[in-house]
Amino acid sequence: MSDSVNTAKRARKAGIASYVGTTIEWYDFYIYGAASALVFGHAFFPESLPAGIGTLLSFVTMWAGFIARPLGGIIFGHFGDKYGRKKTLVVTLVLMGAASFLVGLLPGYATIGVAAPILLTCLRVLQGIAVGGEWGGSVLIASESAPKGKSILYSAFAQQGSPTGNLLATGAFFVLAMMPTPDFILYGWRIAFLASILLIVIGLVIRLKLEEPENMQKARRKDAVVKVPVIEAFKKHWALILLGAGALPLVQVTYLKTTFATAWATDESHDWAYGTSSFLGIVAIALVVQFIVQPFGAVILSRVRDMRKAIFWIVVPEFALMPLMFFAIQTGNVWIAVLGMAAATVPHSMFYAGIGGILARAFPTNVRYTGISLSYQLCSMTVAGGTPAIAQWMYTSTDTIMPVAILGASYAVVSLVCTLALLQKTGWVASEESNAEKAEKIELAEATAEFDREDAPRP
């Protein structure tokens, strides 16, 4: 079998494994968001709290997972850059599954009092650590195994796990919410968390058959790994890490669309409020749209010579579409809400498809896992985790959705500016090697030559 056929086969296998693994990880992470919007305010906090405060506090516990994500990026980035991507991804999958399963078994406030929200927060932190190490490794196992010039396209396999996992989580709660409300709050929601253990087994079977990407194998053979990747990453690439974090707020608008919007749109104090199942159905349709259109973002970025132009035209429509989504929901008309949410989904999902590959190109192999994980998780900690709580506070304080709509549009502005700056520093032609990859190739060639000279027989 030729090398090109082997490469293509290995790339497909890595892409599929990346997709399945991230689907499972994101399912576990997103069911917590759905439960925070619908259940946790009732199950894990006193019923005597003022209206909306229980939901706000449940969003704060969700934020704890995001705060922990950079720690996961550092821990698993360290091991992924030193010992390889495959083993690290197996550990993140098991950790996430265990934490989610335990949430499903956790007694509520009525049973163990204040210990309930404390333990819930601790398990959410474990989820955050797991997903903090998962995303970077999944992107790399796909992009580093890709044929030459197709790393951005193959990195989109990992990104497809997010809408799929979110769709599975939304679908699970859509079905479970059909139960009588007391039963759903008492035990129904737990089924979604307990079921994650079955998905973990499937993911492990697939991931254990993976091969380590060739560039990582070379780095280990040539002893090109660094002792402490996080120090190396911050020392030499701090600007890229910050630009990468700044490029990612647009990705986090999904928490405005799903977590916050679900709590807001199903609040029965509105005369236009939706039923829980009805609005989860709207969210599910938007996720199907995301799943379908998202890969086109990676295709466009791979085929357009200047990725800066592609990013500009992908992101700019979100400036208007995200604010319009909230006003579409507020009409109380299901089909107008579907149209508004589906339209707002297109720009940020296409952007999400390509940004993982763009970030992977920014860093050399020996700190790549750490670098892209830190970029993603720093943004997640500061933006994604706080988004539902900040949006809820904005709405509760002003009694109008306008500030939240402006917040969503501002994410797109920040992402556009930082992504363009990142591409300017790293290179903007997807089919060519990035600046980091060119420099790494030169360094590896020099190290190989030095190794050969030392091994050469003496006259």
> H/E series, N to C?
HHHHHHHHHHHHHHHHHHHHH
N-to-C terminal Cα separation, in Å? Answer: 41 Å
Number of DSSP-assigned strands:
0
What's the pLDDT, averaged over the residues?
A: 85
Shape: globular
Question: What structural class should be given to the helix and strand makeup?
Answer: mainly alpha
Q: Roughly what fraction of the amino acids lie in strands?
A: under 5%
GO molecular function, one term: transmembrane transporter activity
Domain Major facilitator superfamily (MFS) profile: 14-427
InterPro entries: MFS, MFS_dom, MFS_trans_sf
Keywords: Cell membrane, Membrane, Transmembrane, Transmembrane helix, Transport
Give an overview of the whole structure.
It is a single chain. This protein is mainly alpha-helical and 459 residues long. It has a single domain (7-218, 231-454), classed as MFS general substrate transporter like domains (Growth Hormone, Chain: A, Up-down Bundle), CATH 1.20.1250.20. Helix content is 81%, strand content 0%. Helix 1 packs antiparallel against helix 10 (196-207) and helix 3 (53-83) runs antiparallel to helix 18. The chain is globular and about 70 Å long. The two termini are 41 Å apart. The model has no long low-confidence stretch (mean pLDDT 85).
Labels describing this entry:
459 residues, mainly alpha, Growth Hormone, Chain: A, globular, MFS
At a glance:
Helices cover 81% and strands 0% of the residues.
Which secondary structure elements does this structure contain, and how are they paired or packed?
Elements: H1 3-38, H2 40-43, H3 53-83, H4 85-105, H5 109-112, H6 115-143, H7 151-176, H8 181-188, H9 190-194, H10 196-207, H11 214-221, H12 229-247, H13 254-265, H14 276-303, H15 307-315, H16 318-329, H17 334-362, H18 365-384, H19 386-398, H20 402-426, H21 435-455
Organism: Brevibacterium marinum
Keywords: Cell membrane, Membrane, Transmembrane, Transmembrane helix, Transport
Membrane topology: Multi-pass membrane protein
